[in-house]
Amino acid sequence: MNQDHKQLITPNGNTKYLFFGGKGGVGKTTLATATAVWFADHHYKTTIVSTDPTVSLSAMFGQEIGGEARIPIRHVPNLCGLNINPNDAKGVFQNRLNSVMGQMTGTFGGDVISTPCAEEMATFDQFVTFLEEPDSDVIVFDTAPTGKTLRELAMPFDWASFLQKQIQEGKKLAELMNMDENSFEELERDKRRYENALNVMQDRSSTVFNLVLLPERLPIEETYSAIQGLDRLGIPVQALVINQCILPEVIEGNRFLAARASLQARYMGEIDARFGNLVMSRLPLLDRDVSDLGTLRMIGEILYGTERGRI
Ligand SMILES: Nc1ncnc2c1ncn2[C@@H]1O[C@H](COP(=O)(O)OP(=O)(O)O)[C@@H](O)[C@H]1O
Ligand SMILES: [Mg+2]
Question: Which partner for 46 in 40, 144, 279, 307 could form a disulfide, CB atoms 3.0-4.6 Å apart?
C-alpha cells in the first residue's frame, strides 16, 4: 500500500476526478475498477466511466453497462457505471452540433463536423457533462489507450479556439448584415463549457491523472511520451502504477521467473530514475486474471489498505 497515492486520490471535500491511462493491456481497466470499488466500499459516492470502446466495463462487472445513463453496479452499493461508446456519442454530438452550427453553415459553408475528430470530440463532450455536474465524490475514468486519449483531450483546445474565431467573425458579419448578435450565445456557452472542463482537468487538486505501466521497455517509453503530451495540454501526470511486478517470494527457485524478475528490477531502476518525482504504487502479478469483484477488492486493499469505513 502506498499512503501517498491514497492521499493524492482521496476526495478532500470536493469531487475527485481520477484518470487511469496507459498503453493497451497494461491494466487500466483493472486499476480503474479496483479503485472505484475501493472508494465505494469506503462509503464514497463513486462513478466509473469508461471511454474505451471495448466492452470491458460490462465484462468486469458481469452486467450490461450502457452509454445512456449511469446504472448501479450490483453488489457494490455507492457505485454506478457508464460506458461512453464513442460511436453512439458521436451521433448525439453531431445532432447537437448541427443545431448549434445550423445558423452558421449558410454563412460559412464548410462541413465542420464530418472531420475524423468528431468521434474524439463526442467522447470529450460527454466528459464535459460529468465535469460540469459532478454528483459523486469520486469519478473514475477508464480511458482508451494513450494515443487516443491524448487526441480526445487535445481536441477541445482546438475546438475552443475554433469557436472563438467563429464567434468573432460571425459577430462582425452579423453587424454588417444587421443580424441578431444573440444568435452566438449558444456558441459562447459551448466554448465556456469546454474551457471550464479543461480548467478542472488542469487543476491538480481536483484531477489526478494516473498512468499505468509494466516494468518493460515499450510501456516505459509510452509513459514518457504520454507525460510529455499531457504536459503540453497543461495536464500534469501525478502518479504511476507499476503493474504485474513479480515478487521475490513467488520465484521459489524457478529460473524462468527469476529471469523475468531481474529484467523487471532493471526496468524498475529506470522508472525510478526517469519518473522518480511522481507518486508510485506497485501491484504484483497475480496468479489469476482480474474479472471478479473479489479480486478487485483484493487489489484495492493491496493498493490503498484495508481499514474499514470512510477514511
Ligand atoms: N496484476 C495483475 N495480475 C494478473 N493479471 C493482471 C494484472 N493486471 C491486469 N491483469 C490482466 O491483464 C489483462 C489486461 O488488463 P486490463 O486491465 O484489461 O488492461 P487495459 O485496460 O489497460 O487494456 C486482463 O486480462 C487482466 O485480468
Ligand atoms: Mg481497458
Answer: 40
Tens digits of per-residue pLDDT, 74-129? 999 999 999 887 666 666 666 666 665 665 555 555 544 444 466 666 777 777 77
Strand residue runs (E) in the chain = 16-21, 46-50, 71-72, 79-83, 138-142, 207-213, 237-245, 279-284
**Scanning the structure block, which residue is given the C-alpha cell 497543461?**
234
C-alpha 272 – ligand 2 centre gap (Å): 25
* 53 Cα: distance to centroid of ligand 2 (angstroms): 9
Phi, psi angles (nearest 5°) of residue 24: -60, 135
User: Does the Cβ of 28 fall within 6 Å of ligand 1?
Assistant: yes
User: Looking at ligand 1, which atom is closest to the CA of residue 26?
Assistant: 22
Q: Domains plus CATH for the chain? A: 3-84+120-162+192-304 (3.40.50.300)
Query: What backbone phi and psi angles, to 5 degrees, belong to 226?
Result: -65, -40
Ligand (nearest to CA of 213):
1
The count of residues in the chain is 311
Ligand 1 contact via 287 beta carbon (within 6 Å): no
Give the phi and the psi of residue 138 in degrees, each rounded to 5: -130, 130
Taking phi over 0 as left and psi of -120 to 50 as alpha, with beta for the rest, 193 belongs to alpha
Instruction: Tell if the pTM clears 0.85, that is, is over it.
Output: yes
